[in-house]
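Because showing beats explaining, we let one protein speak, sequence and backbone structure tokens together, and leave readers to judge.
___
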Amino acid sequence: MAHHPGLLKRGFKVVTTEKHFHDHDETWLILSGNGTSYWIDHAGVRTDFELAAGDVWMVPAGYEHGSDGLPGTGRNSEDFTIQVCYGTVPSGSHVPGHYYVEREGYVPSLQLVRTPTDRYAPAGLPATMKGIMFVERGRAALIDEATPRNEPGRLLCQTLYTGLTNGTERNTLMGGNYSRGWPGRAGYQNVGRVLAVGAGVTGFAAGDVIFHGDFQQHRQFFCGTAGPDDLVIKLPARVEPSEAALYGVASVAVHDVRRARVALGERVLVVGAGLIGQFTAQVARACGAVVTVCDLNQARLDVAAGLGAHNVAVPDANWDNLKALGPFDCIFEDSGAPVLERIVGPTWNQGILRPQGRLVMIAGRTAVSYNFNAAQGHEIEVLHASHFTLADLRETCRLHGEGILQIAPLLRDRVPYTAMPALYERLRDTPDDLLGVVFDWS
């Protein structure tokens, strides 16, 4: 395209125009009068148009086109005056003019070509970066992908740490109910240093260390949304950034406890002492509850006891040892195991929830089945909880900063991102051996 000074002050009358094509786009500017035109697209389909003063008619490259004149006259109006503008003329094109498919034997078209550029990248930002992709069932690999660029309403960040979301990522890696097949990605715990602040973003500056809880995935750089309700906070200086890489799962636990309305003095049972279970137990205790944690893994129960759980137990055959610690006002089912019959009961009055108690189901699953009569008899309240909110994230940061929510004892593996294949093999084969895992991208 080019500058065309005074173009609309000129023009030429068009009585009729023969069928022809160009190697470039062409635009007709209708200055006065009225007339008809047509084009024939790449598939050979003809479309007719009525044109009048003030219209703009844009003809794609390679479309045969022309003007036959008004119906019944074979001519356009006496004052039908147009001006034309050529679009981009690709390299190798004919000199602009009229050409004919019958003679040339081809129909041209333009093609979009995306050329990587560092034009708007902060100094030193590479054109490509490393990221983690689930390439097939049970296998993760490092891939090369384009480095994001700054955008309005977003924060462009260099990743410092990302936290593994154990349950969700294993579910996705192995084709569970969260999976959409392969290749696939996961990860919603990103700690990064802000490189550039997009237009319209307030409250952040280059150099800030932030946590982002949306789906930014495991990658060297990310460009995350930063609106007033987005899951992003600036980390205070007292917070260790590598520990903050587990704020996502910790915030899920905060959300779950708030969703369950846990109150002072209530008896709470947490089923499953994985990461979310460990954080749920801590948050429930902070609310004043008497907390019991159960799991089949004694090592995880020892961790929970060290973090303040009042009782820990491996369930016996009939869960009698847990019944002795109840009945429970609220039970968090964080394991995903088939345990609802033990919680609700296989029939009347055999469960471990008190009447009108609350059952909160967290772990991912496709279908849920329990004895309705047993739940009905005790008027059990079944609650679902999903992700977390910005308010939950802020409370997580506050509780961690004040030492109420402990993360360091749960952070067992802090590994360079290049070591991730072996880590995902462990997640695939021996998931119970893992607790807090953080990838170091710094």
Q: What stands out?
A: The mean pLDDT is 93. The first strand starts at residue 12 and ends at 13. The CA atoms of residues 336 and 363 lie 5 Å apart.
